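Before the break, one more example. Copy the sequence into your notebook; we will annotate it together after we see the structure.
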Amino acid sequence: MSKTNTSELDLLKFVFQGVSPSWNAAANLFASLHAADPGETGDQSTSESTYGSYTRVTISRSTSAWTTSSTTACVNLASINFPLGTAGAASPVTYMGIGTSFSGAGTLLYSGALASQLAVGVGVTPSFDTGSVTITED
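Here is what the structure looks like once it is written out:
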């Protein structure tokens, strides 16, 4: 996953100006699924999945939910499970994002391509096992 432009700017403002990002005090972030690359200028709703019963899922900002795997990477310690698809034709999901809002545009902090496309539809539960989501700073 890579940072979006908004996330990069927030970090620069924090490091060099002492301005904390608006999401800094939040206890949770929110994972989203995308049918295409939301890009560095996108938000959480850019190319977001629309399968039946889809919603973003809450992920904790804590050491019990994430661990650093090296000097520049962070890995999930808990599974990330999206809702079971209940309606609609199978739709491809190719990207996952992590942002600041449970709904609406929200600030997309990171997004990245999945290792392989998911065909999400009726009866499919998109899920990412422990250790399968790696966020790397470069």
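The two ends are 10 Å apart (CA to CA). The chain is about 10% helix and 35% strand. Try to locate both features in your own notes.
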